Amino acid sequence: MRATEKRKTSTARSKARAAEPKPRPKPRITPEQEKAYRELEHAVSLLYKEEYDRARSELKGMLEKYAQEREMLDRLRMYINVCEARSHRTPRGEGPDLYLQALVQYNEGEYEEALKILEKAARGDPGDARVTYLTACARLAHGEREEGLGLLREAIRMDTANRYRALNDPDLEEIRTAEDFLDAVGDEEPAS
User: Fold this and answer.
1) Which end of the chain has fewer CB within 10 Å, C or N?
2) In this predicted model, what pLDDT tens digit does every residue of 49-107 receive, in sequence order?
3) For the range 98-103, what are the long-range contacts, defined as Cβ-Cβ under 8 Å and sequence gap of 24 or more?
4) How far apart are CA 131 and CA 80, in angstroms?
């Protein structure tokens, strides 16, 4: 092969690699944030053990302790709501909550693992809008923009509250003003 042909082939391969969607890197966190996420992980483990009162108590304590961590506060409130909803049921024998497992993996930046769990959850309950929304976010974070936006449309169709959620989700901040994102969520303007 001639040198010019090698350069052309090499340049074509480089352009093809550059055009491939890149997975979003795992978020970098400070030592304080790492400590907070370890505490959150412990509280979530209590959820898996169905110790809802203990989990809720720890999560509420973290609300005050980490009041400056906006992203953490959203997750804490969501888990507190789960504790409150679950404490009024008798889930023994139901098995682990796949949505919660996937959410933990997603929050840790383990998008492929989260997607595997979400696939199982969707097979168990194809009409669960929470699962569809989290799957959309995981696909977007994993660099699968078209699939992620399609699932986001579906999640909003299933539950219109997901439109507001998407417009305010800190994980979607990077694409919030993109035309294809705005088409997926509908006519409403993003919150500022």
Assistant:
1) C
2) 888 888 888 888 888 888 777 777 777 888 887 887 776 654 433 445 888 889 889 98
3) 98/124, 98/131, 99/128, 99/130, 99/131, 99/134, 100/44, 100/47, 100/48, 101/48, 102/131, 102/134, 102/138, 103/134
4) 18
137: tokens are: 């976010």
* Gap between the Cα atoms of 152 and 182, Å rounded: 11
CATH of domain 96-192: 1.25.40.10
Distance from C-alpha of 46 to C-alpha of 183, rounded to nearest angstrom: 39
| Cα–Cα nearest to 152, from 178, 174, 160 | 160
**What residue spans define the domains of the chain?**
30-92, 96-192
- Structure-token pair, residue 89: 């049921």
What long-range pairs does 48-54 form, CB within 8 A, spacing at least 24? 48/96, 48/97, 48/100, 48/101, 50/86, 50/91, 50/92, 52/83, 52/84, 52/86, 52/87, 53/83, 53/87
Q: For 174-178, which contacts have Cβ atoms below 8 Å and span 24 or more sequence positions?
A: 175/140, 175/145
pLDDT at 115 over 70: yes
